Amino acid sequence: MTSEGEPLACMGPRLPLFVRLTATKGARFRALLAWLSWLLDDMGVAGWSDLVSQAVSALVGTLVGGAITVLVARWQTERTITAQTDLALAQEAATSRLARSERERERATVAAIQLLERLATLYAWLPSLPDVSEEIPRLSVHAREECRAALQALRRGMMTDLFAISDTEVRSRYRALVKLVYDAGWRGKGREHPERLVTDVRGYLRFVQSSLEAVIDGAPLPSHVDPPVLERPEADLWIPPQAPEYWGDPAGGS
After folding, report:
1. Inter-helix orientation angle 194-217/168-185, to 10°
2. For the chain, how long is the longest CA-to-CA vector?
3. Which structural domains are found in the chain, ordered by start?
4. Spatial separation of the C-alpha atoms in residues 144 and 3, rounded to whole Å
5. Could you write out the three-class secondary structure of the chain?
6. The dihedral formed by the CA atoms of 52, 54, 57 and 60, expressed in degrees to the nearest 10
7. Nearest by Cα to 17 from 45, 42, 44, 2
8. Alpha-carbon dihedral of residues 224, 230, 231, 237, nearest 10 degrees?
9. Using CA atoms, how far apart are residues 14 and 27, in angstroms rounded to an integer?
10. Which whole-number Å values give the CA distances from 77 to 3, 19, 71, 133, in the listed order?
11. CA angle 132, 137, 138 (to 5 degrees)
């Protein structure tokens, strides 16, 4: 083995191995310098410049390529996170809308059932509707009082349960029914034809009933129709253009 003080340039390009085999740190450092000096002399300045240029180019290419890779990876990650966030927000909004729609439908169903009960109570006492404003009823005092109470219950439903139904057309039909029965009962409209009056009110009540049933079933509403005109000269009975199947069934209360 060459001693620490021997010239090292003669070792040529294999010097790095010798550097690794040299015992002391000082000898290894001097051996490395001698090898580099020999290498530069052997390659010349031009060769060294080429080597440096190639090394720098390779280093720059590696750094730039690595930076681009990192930037692309970061962009893809951010894009994925953004897409996942947007999707989660959209799903949450859709779930919220669905839950809200279900709650509204549930409230509307409960309200429609309660309003139908009010209609059923009035329906039972409709024959006494012309007696509501009379001191001496045609039928009986008891029937008149029950009819009055049914009218009040129907009107209370317009101020309470009806607001749980968001369909404006259903609200409009129920309010038209309240106005119709109060015109017939308390304002005396159509009193000259009491039987026709009761039949007209019963018909429109059934029309509103079918509209509330559509709310419960989630079905389309019957086509709009104006309520009957109580003080009309014609003797024809009022019948909606699209009457339910049970309209003429005695078991249905018609």
Report:
1. 160
2. 143
3. 103-252 (1.20.120)
4. 133
5. CCCCCCCCHHHHHHHHHHHHHCCCHHHHHHHHHHHHHHHHHHHHHHHHHHHHHHHHHHHHHHHHHHHHHHHHHHHHHHHHHHHHHHHHHHHHHHHHHHHHHHHHHHHHHHHHHHHHHHHHHHHHCHHHHHHCCCCCCCCCHHHHHHHHHHHHHHHHHHHCHHHHCCCHHHHHHHHHHHHHHHHHHCCCCCCCCHHHHHHHHHHHHHHHHHHHHHHHHCCCCCCCCCCCCCCCCCCCCCCCCCCCHHHHCHHHCC
6. -60
7. 2
8. 80
9. 15
10. 58, 47, 10, 78
11. 120
- The residue type of 192 is E
Amino acid at 65: G
Give 86-130 pLDDT, tens digit per residue: 888 788 777 777 777 788 889 999 999 999 999 999 999 999 999
Give me 219's structure tokens: 């079905």
Residue type at position 206: R
First to last CA, the chain: 124
**pTM (2 decimals)?**
0.62
The Cα 15–Cα 13 span in angstroms is 5
Q: Which two tokens stand for residue 149?
A: 């109470």
Q: Is 243 left (phi over 0), alpha (psi -120 to 50) or beta?
A: beta
Question: For 17-61, what is each residue's pLDDT tens digit?
Answer: 554 555 455 666 566 656 666 666 665 555 555 655 666 566 667
